[in-house]
Write a structure and sequence with these properties.
elongated, mainly alpha, 47% helix
């Protein structure tokens, strides 16, 4: 018969820091990647009409993506907090932790 003991193994939960790549943190990495891919696709479609228009649109799209993602990362930060005037609302945690040992 099998033993009904449950084994507990330690789980690595990371360093509790956001993922950083080339200066971009967390969700802004995905925003930058999406903007760059979208700029490349729109530029490729634009080159079917005129190569200079397509390349111009591609370069402007890439530059705008880099600028706005950097701006929003600096201005809003990784975690948005709701502030009304000078009041910071703190919500009470009502979830109870159970200790089953």
């Amino acid at each position: 018969m099998e033993n009904n003991k449950i084994s507990h193994y330690p789980v690595y939960k990371g360093l509790k820091k956001p993922f950083v790549f080339k200066g971009y943190k967390g969700k802004f990495i995905y925003y930058a990647a999406g903007g760059l891919i979208l700029s490349l696709v729109i530029g490729a479609i634009g080159t079917s009409f005129n190569i200079f228009i397509g390349l111009g649109v591609m370069i402007l799209g890439i530059a705008a993506t880099i600028y706005f993602v950097g701006y929003f990362q600096k201005a809003k930060g990784l975690f948005n907090k709701t502030k009304d005037g000078k009041i910071l609302w703190v919500h009470q945690n009502r979830i109870k932790k159970f200790n089953n040992k």
